[in-house]
Amino acid sequence: MFRKKGYWITTLIFLLLLGCEERDVVLEEQVQQVQKEPGELFMMDLRETINLSFKIINAMENNNHQYLESVSASGLTVDKEKNEIVYTFNENEVKLGFLKGIHLGNLEFRGSGYTDDETIFQVIFAHYFEDTHGTIYFDFIKQDNRWLLNGLMTNA
Protein backbone atom coordinates (compact mmCIF):
# COMPACT_ATOMS: atom_id res chain seq x y z
CA MET A 1 0.00 0.00 0.00
CA PHE A 2 2.82 2.39 0.89
CA ARG A 3 4.52 1.74 -2.47
CA LYS A 4 1.33 2.57 -4.38
CA LYS A 5 0.84 5.76 -2.35
CA GLY A 6 4.48 6.77 -2.91
CA TYR A 7 4.17 6.07 -6.63
CA TRP A 8 1.08 8.26 -6.92
CA ILE A 9 2.65 11.06 -4.90
CA THR A 10 5.78 10.93 -7.05
CA THR A 11 3.68 10.88 -10.23
CA LEU A 12 1.58 13.82 -8.96
CA ILE A 13 4.70 15.87 -8.12
CA PHE A 14 6.17 15.07 -11.54
CA LEU A 15 2.98 16.20 -13.29
CA LEU A 16 2.82 19.37 -11.20
CA LEU A 17 6.43 20.19 -12.03
CA LEU A 18 5.81 19.44 -15.68
CA GLY A 19 2.83 21.81 -15.57
CA CYS A 20 4.98 24.53 -13.98
CA GLU A 21 7.60 24.06 -16.67
CA GLU A 22 5.00 24.39 -19.42
CA ARG A 23 3.60 27.51 -17.75
CA ASP A 24 7.10 29.02 -17.59
CA VAL A 25 7.58 28.29 -21.30
CA VAL A 26 4.26 29.97 -22.12
CA LEU A 27 5.17 32.96 -19.94
CA GLU A 28 8.58 33.20 -21.60
CA GLU A 29 6.94 33.10 -25.05
CA GLN A 30 4.55 35.88 -24.02
CA VAL A 31 7.46 38.02 -22.80
CA GLN A 32 9.30 37.48 -26.08
CA GLN A 33 6.17 38.42 -28.04
CA VAL A 34 5.80 41.68 -26.10
CA GLN A 35 9.47 42.48 -26.75
CA LYS A 36 9.01 41.88 -30.50
CA GLU A 37 5.84 43.91 -30.94
CA PRO A 38 5.80 47.41 -29.49
CA GLY A 39 2.67 48.29 -27.60
CA GLU A 40 0.06 50.79 -28.68
CA LEU A 41 1.29 53.40 -26.17
CA PHE A 42 4.86 53.11 -27.46
CA MET A 43 3.74 53.46 -31.09
CA MET A 44 1.67 56.54 -30.22
CA ASP A 45 4.58 58.13 -28.35
CA LEU A 46 6.95 57.27 -31.20
CA ARG A 47 4.67 58.91 -33.77
CA GLU A 48 4.23 62.04 -31.66
CA THR A 49 7.93 62.49 -30.89
CA ILE A 50 9.10 61.84 -34.47
CA ASN A 51 6.59 64.38 -35.80
CA LEU A 52 7.65 66.82 -33.10
CA SER A 53 11.31 66.27 -34.08
CA PHE A 54 10.54 67.18 -37.71
CA LYS A 55 8.67 70.31 -36.62
CA ILE A 56 11.55 71.33 -34.33
CA ILE A 57 14.07 70.89 -37.15
CA ASN A 58 11.88 73.05 -39.39
CA ALA A 59 11.42 75.69 -36.68
CA MET A 60 15.19 75.87 -36.11
CA GLU A 61 15.86 76.18 -39.84
CA ASN A 62 13.42 79.12 -40.00
CA ASN A 63 14.37 80.67 -36.62
CA ASN A 64 10.79 80.22 -35.39
CA HIS A 65 11.45 81.07 -31.75
CA GLN A 66 7.77 81.18 -30.83
CA TYR A 67 7.15 77.59 -31.91
CA LEU A 68 10.33 76.35 -30.22
CA GLU A 69 9.30 78.00 -26.97
CA SER A 70 5.83 76.44 -27.22
CA VAL A 71 7.30 72.90 -27.40
CA SER A 72 10.10 73.37 -24.85
CA ALA A 73 10.05 71.72 -21.43
CA SER A 74 10.36 73.91 -18.36
CA GLY A 75 14.13 73.32 -18.08
CA LEU A 76 14.93 74.37 -21.67
CA THR A 77 15.08 77.95 -22.89
CA VAL A 78 15.41 79.47 -26.35
CA ASP A 79 18.02 82.22 -26.75
CA LYS A 80 16.47 84.37 -29.48
CA GLU A 81 19.56 86.55 -29.98
CA LYS A 82 22.00 83.67 -30.49
CA ASN A 83 19.52 81.17 -32.02
CA GLU A 84 20.42 78.57 -29.42
CA ILE A 85 18.62 76.25 -27.06
CA VAL A 86 19.93 76.20 -23.51
CA TYR A 87 19.36 73.46 -20.94
CA THR A 88 21.11 71.55 -18.15
CA PHE A 89 22.53 68.07 -18.71
CA ASN A 90 24.41 66.23 -15.93
CA GLU A 91 24.62 69.47 -13.94
CA ASN A 92 26.26 71.29 -16.87
CA GLU A 93 24.72 74.04 -18.93
CA VAL A 94 24.45 73.08 -22.59
CA LYS A 95 24.13 75.69 -25.33
CA LEU A 96 23.39 74.33 -28.76
CA GLY A 97 22.96 76.38 -31.90
CA PHE A 98 19.89 75.75 -34.02
CA LEU A 99 20.16 72.87 -36.46
CA LYS A 100 20.54 74.13 -40.02
CA GLY A 101 20.62 72.52 -43.46
CA ILE A 102 18.79 69.37 -42.44
CA HIS A 103 16.30 68.07 -45.00
CA LEU A 104 14.41 64.80 -45.30
CA GLY A 105 16.73 63.73 -48.11
CA ASN A 106 19.74 63.68 -45.76
CA LEU A 107 18.01 62.48 -42.60
CA GLU A 108 17.59 58.87 -41.49
CA PHE A 109 15.70 57.50 -38.49
CA ARG A 110 18.06 55.41 -36.33
CA GLY A 111 16.15 54.54 -33.19
CA SER A 112 13.95 55.51 -30.29
CA GLY A 113 12.77 54.44 -26.90
CA TYR A 114 11.94 55.29 -23.33
CA THR A 115 15.08 56.15 -21.38
CA ASP A 116 13.79 55.86 -17.80
CA ASP A 117 10.08 55.41 -17.71
CA GLU A 118 7.17 56.24 -19.99
CA THR A 119 7.64 59.98 -19.42
CA ILE A 120 11.10 60.31 -20.99
CA PHE A 121 11.60 59.40 -24.64
CA GLN A 122 14.53 59.72 -27.04
CA VAL A 123 14.48 59.83 -30.85
CA ILE A 124 17.72 59.33 -32.80
CA PHE A 125 18.46 60.40 -36.38
CA ALA A 126 21.51 60.24 -38.62
CA HIS A 127 22.23 63.39 -40.61
CA TYR A 128 24.17 62.61 -43.78
CA PHE A 129 26.43 65.15 -45.46
CA GLU A 130 29.18 64.67 -48.01
CA ASP A 131 30.78 61.28 -47.29
CA THR A 132 29.99 61.05 -43.57
CA HIS A 133 27.17 61.51 -41.08
CA GLY A 134 26.42 62.87 -37.65
CA THR A 135 23.93 61.72 -35.07
CA ILE A 136 21.13 63.79 -33.56
CA TYR A 137 19.53 62.80 -30.25
CA PHE A 138 16.21 64.46 -29.38
CA ASP A 139 15.21 64.11 -25.73
CA PHE A 140 11.57 64.57 -24.82
CA ILE A 141 9.72 64.64 -21.54
CA LYS A 142 6.00 64.23 -21.02
CA GLN A 143 4.61 67.16 -19.05
CA ASP A 144 0.89 67.82 -18.62
CA ASN A 145 0.17 64.86 -20.91
CA ARG A 146 2.14 66.37 -23.81
CA TRP A 147 5.62 65.67 -25.20
CA LEU A 148 8.05 68.58 -24.93
CA LEU A 149 11.66 69.04 -26.02
CA ASN A 150 13.90 68.51 -23.01
CA GLY A 151 17.31 68.46 -24.71
CA LEU A 152 19.19 67.88 -27.91
CA MET A 153 22.64 66.43 -28.52
CA THR A 154 24.43 66.16 -31.82
CA ASN A 155 27.79 65.77 -33.48
CA ALA A 156 26.27 66.75 -36.84
UniProtKB/TrEMBL annotation:
It comes from the Bacteria. This is DUF4829 domain-containing protein. The lineage of its organism: Bacteria, Bacillati, Bacillota, Bacilli, Bacillales.
